[in-house]
Amino acid sequence: MPLSEQEQRLLEEMERSLYHNDADFVATVGTHRGRPNVRTVVIGILIGVFGIAVIVTGVVLRLPILGIAGFVIMFVGVLMAISSPRRGAASPAPAEPAARQRASFMDRMNERWDKRQDGHDE
Question: Which among 6, 16, 32, 12 is positioned nearest to 87, based on CA atoms?
Fold first, then answer.
């Protein structure tokens, strides 16, 4: 079900407020991920395949410890293949010229809350 225009505007305003008020959080969990390193992905896949081979060998030889070691090797390979690239510096938050001209959504909500607590109705 698509959002109404008012809901879209509210969502965009909340996103701008998040970018403005908590840039560190946005940089940490933002959707802008770096390009994956092909070399790391290929090495991770190869390690994962090697881990599967060790698991199969452990099953054929009936050595549970070898199967467990193969699982750990496979798990490390998969983690290496799907891990995001490391970034040295956090990416800057997008510029917001309109946010400086008017108060953010959260600022307005805080002002409304303060007015209600002081006994002033809107």
Answer: 32
